[in-house]
């Protein structure tokens, strides 16, 4: 059982690497952003309630996101998981820790992927050409997402630093190079 949080600003490569790591270590992969986008695409009530936050590049309410993860864990607790884009506030992290403790589990590592802002914007603008993601379409929204990350999310690193679970890697370089750095951290935790 291995629960890994991939952490970092929008565009740092969380989704790309989470998918590869999940396959390599036989873990589940949950992206809260993907779950929200799929609710929106299916036109559910939950999706409609979150559309505004996503398109402005703001965080969805903690209570909703936490319940989405709780729901996921009901059917995905038999092996570990890569958490991509969650937890994103200290409140989410506190509830998440309790949620895992209730099923005799815990976070094993949070790994921060360090990428400079200009590279983040460049990557997201490039993807935005065909991703169809509303929050990729304008540079203003992209910069707002990065600002929201700085203001509300970056602090979550302190929460896991206090628990001795925080590591950092350089998120620049090829996808293979970044993958190898992440594996080096994870292999030390196993
Ligand atoms: P979310 O879907 O989590 O988006 P994000 O954090 O903004 O990050 P991205 O998905 O854009 O980037 P990524 O880090 O996954 O990088 P990727 O691998 O795609 O969240 C979206 C929204 O949902 C939030 O704004 C919020 O509204 C809401 N939300 C989600 N979770 C929430 C939560 N917990 N609480 C509240 N609200 C929440 O890579 C980016 C691009 O770069 C890709 O095109 C990729 O191909 C490319 N790339 C990857 N690696 C490299 C590399 N090494 N070199 C060059 N290019 C690369
Ligand atoms: Mg992503």
Present the secondary structure layout:
Blueprint: E1 3-7, H1 14-25, E2 28-31, H2 32-41, H3 45-56, H4 62-75, E3 81-84, H5 90-102, E4 109-114, H6 117-131, H7 139-153, H8 156-162, E5 166-170, H9 175-189
Parallel strand pairs: 1-3, 1-4, 2-3, 4-5
Helix pairs in contact: 1-9, 2-3, 4-5, 6-7
Written description of the protein model:
By secondary structure, the chain is α/β, with parallel strands linked by helices. It has helices at 14-25, 32-41, 45-56, 62-75, 90-102, 117-131, 139-153, 156-162, 175-189; strands spanning 3-7, 28-31, 81-84, 109-114, 166-170. The protein has a single domain (3-189), classed as Rossmann fold (3-Layer(aba) Sandwich). It has nine helices and five strands. The longest helix has 15 residues, at 117-131. The termini are close together. The mean pLDDT is 97.
Class in CATH? Answer: Alpha Beta
Give the termini separation. Answer: 9 Å
**CATH homology superfamily:** P-loop containing nucleotide triphosphate hydrolases
Q: How do the strands of the widest beta sheet line up side by side? A: 2-3-1-4-5
**Envelope shape:** globular
Work out the count of structural domains.
1
Instruction: Give the overall average pLDDT.
Output: 97
For the largest beta-sheet, the strand count, sense and barrel status come to:
5 strands, parallel
Q: Kindly identify the CATH topology.
A: Rossmann fold
Order of helices and strands: EHEHHHEHEHHHEH
Oligomer: single chain
Strand content: 5-15%
Ligands bound to this protein structure: BIS(adenosine)-5'-pentaphosphate, magnesium ion
Helix residue percentage: 55-70%
Gyration radius over CA = 16 Å
């Amino acid at each position: 059982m291995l629960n890994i949080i991939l952490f970092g600003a929008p565009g740092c490569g969380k989704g790309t690497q989470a998918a590869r790591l999940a396959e390599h270590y036989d873990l589940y992969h949950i992206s809260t952003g993907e779950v929200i986008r799929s609710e929106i695409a299916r036109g559910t009530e939950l999706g409609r309630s979150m559309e505004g936050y996503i398109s402005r590049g703001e965080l969805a309410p903690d209570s909703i996101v936490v319940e989405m993860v709780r729901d996921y864990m009901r059917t995905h607790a038999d092996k570990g998981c890569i958490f991509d884009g969650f937890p994103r506030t200290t409140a989410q992290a506190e509830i998440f820790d309790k949620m895992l403790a209730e099923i005799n589990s815990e976070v094993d590592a949070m790994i921060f992927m360090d990428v400079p802002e200009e590279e983040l914007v460049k990557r997201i603008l490039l993807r935005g050409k065909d991703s169809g993601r509303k929050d990729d379409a304008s540079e203003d929204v992209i910069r707002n997402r990065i600002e929201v990350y700085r203001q509300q999310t970056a602090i979550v690193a302190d929460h896991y630093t206090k628990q001795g679970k925080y590591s950092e890697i350089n998120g620049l370089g090829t996808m293979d190079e970044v993958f190898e750095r992440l594996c080096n951290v994870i292999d030390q935790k196993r």
